[in-house]
Amino acid sequence: MKRLAAPLLIGLIGAAILVALGVWQMQRLAWKEAILNDIESTIAGDPVPLPASYDPGTDRYQPVELEGSIGEGELHVLVSQKQKGAGYRIIAPFTTDDGRTILIDRGFVPNEAKDATRRIGETAIRANLHAPEERSGFTPENEVDRNIWFARDVGAMADALGAEPILAIVREEMPPAPGIDPLPVSSEGIPNDHLQYAITWFSLAAVWLGMTVIWVRRRSFAQEVRT
């Protein structure tokens, strides 16, 4: 039995660690799902006027209804859409009826429509405030001279268009803008891989236990042969 103690101990401790990691991922899954539910509830909430003092932390995803005018000049953010291919998000200045100018993300246009003329002027919009965090160490620098942006850098875009550093993602323009497909904000792009991680850890625990059983049987068989 002493020869079997070591593999049994290693097997049980290793399996316990792997199961604990799986349980931790299940706890993370519940935590992430609660966050996603809160985000979806906020997105679908009742719209309010533009906050007088904008806080990216507390006002993120807040629905708003705005009336005013879409101004001249727009910025193009390179993106790709499933079944549509490459294209651009259209970021434009929007001046509210009370004189505040913010940024609006009007939606997607295909590559060939990058420099097309789009409707501007008096518009009412339904949108959600957002503070996207899209830049990483792998994101190229924006090619401002060609008006090609690789991330929605709200501060830099606000400086370029003379607006407050506030971005509203359009759900609906009234009247609609021909040729632009709105890309409303949602929780779909927020990663939630904890279930897959949990399944991986639990599977590894099962494999570990299986290997432990094989190891113990071989040692037991070897011991019987010697005796």
Automatic annotation (TrEMBL):
GO CC field: plasma membrane
Annotated CDD domains: SURF1
Compartment list: Cell membrane; Membrane
Membrane topology: Multi-pass membrane protein
Pfam families in UniProt: SURF1
PROSITE patterns: SURF1
Domain of life: Bacteria
Transmembrane segments: 195-216
Keywords from the named record: Cell membrane, Membrane, Transmembrane, Transmembrane helix
InterPro entries for the chain: Surf1/Shy1, Surf1/Surf4
Keyword Transferase: no
UniProt keyword annotation of Transmembrane present: yes
Location, primary (coarse class): membrane
Similarity-based family: Belongs to the SURF1 family.
Protein name (record): SURF1-like protein
Organism annotation: Roseivivax halodurans JCM 10272
